[in-house]
Structure formats: structure tokens, C-alpha cells
Amino acid sequence: MAKEPNSKLQDIISHCKEYGFVFQSSEIYDGLQAVYDYGQMGAELKKNIKDYWWYSMTRMHDNIVGIDAAIFMHPTVWKASGHVDNFNDPMIDNRDSKKRYRVDHLIEAHAAMLDEAAGKELISKMEALLAADDFAGLKQLIDDNGIKCDISGTGYWTDIRQFNLMFDTQMGSTSTEEDDKVYLRPETAQGIFVNFLNVQKTGRMKIPFGIAQVGKAFRNEIVARGFIFRMREFEQMEMQYFIKPGTQKEWYEYWKETRIKWHKTLGIPAEQYNFHNHVKLAHYADAACDIEYNFPDWGFKEVEGIHSRTDFDLSRHQEYSKKKLTYFDTEENKHYVPYVIETSIGLDRTVMMVLSEAYEEQDLSTAEKQDSRVVLKFAPHLAPIKLAVLPLTKKDGLPDVAKQLMDECRPHFKCFYEEKDTIGKRYRRQDAIGTPFCVTIDHQTLEDKTVTMRHRDSMEQERIPLDKVKDMVLEKIKQF
Ligand code: GAP
Questions:
Q1: By alpha-carbon position, which residue is closest to atom 19 of ligand 1?
Q2: Which residues of the chain does CATH 3.40.50.800 include?
Q3: Rg of the chain over CA atoms, in angstroms?
Q4: CATH superfamily of 25-69+185-355
Q5: Which of 64, 225, 260, 415 is the most buried (most CB within 10 A)?
């Protein structure tokens, strides 16, 4: 991607590559569009976020359990869920450049270049037309506003058409039969719905209860740009909460509140978040909103969706599978198809949000010398490495003491050992990957068994007993 002037996001993307957070997939072959790999630091960060979400759901709520369903599902699942018929985005092609655009993205990009009032007016017109599926009206809106292709520079557009976002493939080695077509799941949610009764019965779950899942999802995104914000292969963390029909409003509010509280525990202040209520509801929802984060350069963009999905999914699976998917409510003494509140957060988007919030370029120059650093101020429980253990020199037995400390801490949290370069350089490298604590073992350690503990954000240093290091770090990285 070409670097735009003063683009904080571009700086973050470059930093991610330089320090092993995110690489373009198959980079040595020039990459694959909108597919990314996580490097050694990114994989740790992503796993910490994933684990934190998993434990927040399945450990902190006695009535939420987790499952791990397969990516491939019976093709009828996607017919029943509505994805075969409805999981479309309106697209438009520029006849000159042959470039295809998602209509909402094309209009949004144009609105962003207008003054605030005009931009808002354009977006609200677009939302009304999208809600009415009025493609002729949308095309007219594009024409009336003189919206041009960013490659050809012309406004020579095709009509607007729907484009299905699911990837499909064939099950079996030689088959090309339409009947053998399987899809790569475009959301993890359906794996939960089709297992609703299995889990309810085997877990003797009583409504209200939730089923959580983390896993890969695939969408053939047309306008796939924005680093790990919009990918073709990504990961979702979804939870379906099964409730009594008629209670959906109160549970919807409950989950909005619970989820925003969780977001704030990522070390991100409240003002960086926003709720956006959907105008055009998805085919399964009776209420829906997004939790948006204020990304650098872009402003507020969706990270998580909270959807009141009614009994749409279970009823449809009941209809298509011809299997009963009802729950017997012993208090009410009746059978019903439960309603569902869904919380659905993109893991990769959360990684990008956490990286964006953490990234800071600091000018540390003094009258005597120029200095600066890039620091990733991750919440300690999310940081890829929690503690760096740094012997001041390679001699005098300091590495032995440092290695003993590594042995003590390693089973409890991720540590990093380094003896090369000056302490200052080593601190800077740890700042750049967001390590919250560095411990330096020096000659005084040999005398009085104390070490220097250096704090990433304040850069303050304190002397603490060597045998207190592990417990101090454990206390600071506590999640709950
Ligand atoms: N089961 C509901 C569902 O899938 P969604 O709003 O389409 O709802 C939920 O997706 C979340 O998944 C989004 O808020 C976003 O964080 C993430 N997500 C969706 N498409 C994505 C993509 N192409 N790349 C990365 N994350 C994506």
C-alpha cells in the first residue's frame, strides 16, 4: 500500500510488519488480496484477545458454554439461514476501469470528501434507499452526485446488481455436481444454531443460556481494503443467547451494556466507542446496533454487532431440517422456539482496534539530545510479552540469575530474555512490541537480591526484590 501523508494507520501497518505482528499472506508471491498472516507478536496478541473473550463469556457466566463447530456445514444450512438468497451486497462496476465497488462504500467514500452537512445528507439518502432496496434510486444518487471511479476517473457505471459473498467449493475429490457444493461458512453463528438442541439437552441448559464460539469465517468481500479490518478470511467471536420470546428487548439492552463494559476493559476509554443503530436491518433481526471504535484516519467504524435475531434461525432450521428445535419451559409449562440475542465481534478488527489505541509516537528530546520512541501501550493482560528479563552484561554471573528468573516466570506468563545491546536499546525494542515490564539484573542484584523494574508507559524505574517480580507481574496482568 502506498503511504499517504500523515496517515497514522499507515504508520501502524508498517510498524506491524516491522515488529512481527501482521504480514501480507504469501508475501514472497506478492501477497493475496485481503488475506493476512499473524507473525510471532500478532499471534500472541490475537490469542490473548481471543482467550480473554472466551473466558469473559464461558467462565464469567455460569450459563454460557463454548463449542467448536466445523467450518463446513450441510449446504441446506445456508439455504435455511437465508445466506444463499440474501447474503448479497449491491455492487456497481465502472465500465472503463472494470473495477467493482460496493455501492455503500463508493457513496461513503464520496461523502467523506464533502463538508460535514452535505456528507451527512448524502449518507442518510443512501441509507433510506438501501433500506428500500431501491437500486435505481441508488444509481441515480451516484449519478446526481457525480461520483467517479478512483481508477478511471469516469462516472460511466453499470446498473447496480447483487453479488453473493459466500465462497463455495466441492465436497469429494472429483465431483462437480451442484448437489455436492459446500460453502466456507460466512459466519460462525450457524454452527451454534444447528447445535442448539445438542448443547441444551446434553448440558441440561435452562433458558436463558448462551453458546459461544470462536472461529474462522470467509466472505468474498469485493472492496477488501483496510488492512485486517476487512478480510476474506477472518475470525469471529460470537455468542448466541437463547431467551424466552417477548424478553428480547430487555436482553438486548443487557448485552449492549455488558459488551461495552467488556470493551472498556481492553484499556480503551469510553469516548473512543460509539453505538450505531442499524437503519436497514439484516433479514433475521428485529433490532441491531454496532459498537464502533474511533479508528485513526477513518473515524468510527464497526467492531462488534449486537443483534436481536428473534426466532428466525431456529425456526428456519426447524422448517428445513424437519427436526423439532423447541425448548420445554418447565416454569411456563410449554414448548417454544427460543428467541436469540447475538453478540458478534470480529477478532481481527479487535486486534486492529487494540493496536490503533496502543500505538504512540513520542518525542523524548531534551535540551541535550534528540530522542523519540514508538510505544505500544497495550493493556498488560493483552500484551504479547509480559516481562523482559535483561541482564546488564553477559558476564559476572548476571545471565545465570536472569535465567533463574525466566525459569520461575515462564510457566505463568510469556517472558522474553535478551542480553545483547545497551539497556536503552533493549528497552526501546520492548516498547515497540508493547512489553509492559522490563527487569534488569545488575551487579547490585548479586549483593542485595533486588532488580530494576522498568515500567513501559511512564518509563519509571523502581528497585524491587527479585523474589517479588513474578507476583508483581501476575498482579498487574490479572484479567478478572
Ligand atoms: N453472525 C452475525 C454476523 O456475522 P456481521 O456484522 O456480518 O454479523 C460480525 O459480522 C462482525 O464480524 C463484524 O462486526 C466485524 O467485526 C467482523 N467482520 C465481518 N466481516 C468481516 C471481514 N470481512 N473482515 C474482518 N472482520 C469482519
A1: 346
A2: 373-476
A3: 26
A4: Bira Bifunctional Protein; Domain 2 (3.30.930.10)
A5: 415
What is the Cα–Cα distance from 112 to 408, expressed in whole angstroms? 53
Cα(231) to centroid(ligand 1), Å: 10
Q: Could you tell me the distance, in angstroms and rounded to a whole number, from the CA of residue 343 to the centre of ligand 1?
A: 11
Topology of the domain comprising 373-476: Rossmann fold (3.40.50)
Query: Does ligand 1 lie within 6 Å of residue 233's CB atom?
Result: no
Other C-beta atoms lying within 10 Å of the C-beta of residue 180: 13
Mean pLDDT of the chain: 95
Best mutation site among 25, 35, 344 for ligand 1, i.e. most ligand atoms within 8 A of its Cβ?
344
User: What are 233-269's pLDDT values in tens digits?
Assistant: 999 999 999 999 999 999 999 999 999 999 999 999 9
Lowest mean pLDDT among 41-50, 99-108, 137-146, 292-301: 99-108
Cβ pair 426, 418 in contact under 8 A: yes
* pLDDT (average), residues 348-358: 98
DSSP 133-165: T-HHHHHHHHHHTT---TTT----B---EEEE-
pLDDT at position 89, please?
Answer: 87
What is the rounded CA–CA span in Å between residue 301 and residue 286? 22
Contact 340/240 with Cβ under 8 angstroms? yes
Quick one: which atom of ligand 1 is closest to the CA of 350?
A: 16
